[in-house]
Every structure is written in C-alpha cells, then in structure tokens.
Amino acid sequence: MSEKYTAMTEAVYYILLSLKTPNHGYGIIQNTLALTNGRLELGAGTLYGAVNTLLERGWIRLYSEDKHSRKKKQYLITKQGEYALEQEVQRLEELLENGRKILHSGE
C-alpha cells in the first residue's frame, strides 16, 4: 500500500464497487447503470481500458475465465483495491463536508 493515492475517475470508482463480488464486463456495465440510475453508462473502451489498468495496479484480479466465451472473464476486487476504494470514499466525504460547510455558512 505504499503507492501514492490519487483521486479516482468515476468510472474506476463504479468498476471497483461492481467487483465486490465476481463480475464480468457486461455485469459491471449493468451494475453501474443501476447504481447511477442510468446516469453513467460505461462504454466498452472505457471499461476495458480501466480494467487493464486496475489489473496492472493489483486493485482487481481475474477471478475466472471461460475460454469459449469472450464475455465470461470475471474479475474481483483485491485487498489493495478495497483499500483504494476506502481512501476514495474518505476523499469524497471530505469534499461533501467542505462543500456543505461553505455553501451553508451564513444562513
């Protein structure tokens, strides 16, 4: 966990949330749509580019693979990925807290 923490993109955030249980690409897209009430639709290029980066960082791992089907690779978040996700939630909470303090000061 010595890697310097940086803010996540929204796509990476929702991909990691979608991988708390094993999931494949189409499932990640569908879960993200459900979590955001249809606001965020991940494109295949965005999804698989992020998946490759997350694999390189060790934040997710290949869970299972069906060699006969392209969309049957399932991924799962790692402990390192969970830590990064927790750091992002803390960062977002700080953003909200500071925004609320400033917006509602002087009321």
Architecture overview:
The protein is mainly α and 107 residues long. The termini are far apart. The longest helix has 25 residues. It has one domain: Winged helix-like DNA-binding domain superfamily/Winged helix DNA-binding domain (Arc Repressor Mutant, subunit A). 55% of the residues lie in helices and 8% in strands. The chain is built from four helices and two strands, in the order αααββα.
Label this structure with key terms:
107 residues; mainly alpha; Arc Repressor Mutant, subunit A; two-stranded antiparallel sheet; 8% strand; elongated
Secondary structure layout plus pairing:
Layout: H1 10-18, H2 25-35, H3 44-57, E1 60-64, E2 74-77, H4 79-103
Antiparallel strand pairs: 1-2
In short:
This protein is mainly α. The protein has helices at 10-18, 25-35, 44-57, 79-103; strands spanning 60-64, 74-77.
Number of helices: 4
Main sheet: strand order: 1-2
Order of helices and strands: HHHEEH
Give the low-confidence spans: none
Note the main sheet.
Answer: 2 strands, antiparallel
In terms of DSSP E residues, the strand content is 5-15%
CATH-defined architecture: Orthogonal Bundle
CATH class reads Mainly Alpha
CATH T-level fold name: Arc Repressor Mutant, subunit A
Helical/strand content category: mainly alpha
Q: Tell me the number of structural domains.
A: 1
| Fourth-level CATH superfamily | Winged helix-like DNA-binding domain superfamily/Winged helix DNA-binding domain
Radius of gyration: 16 Å
General shape: elongated
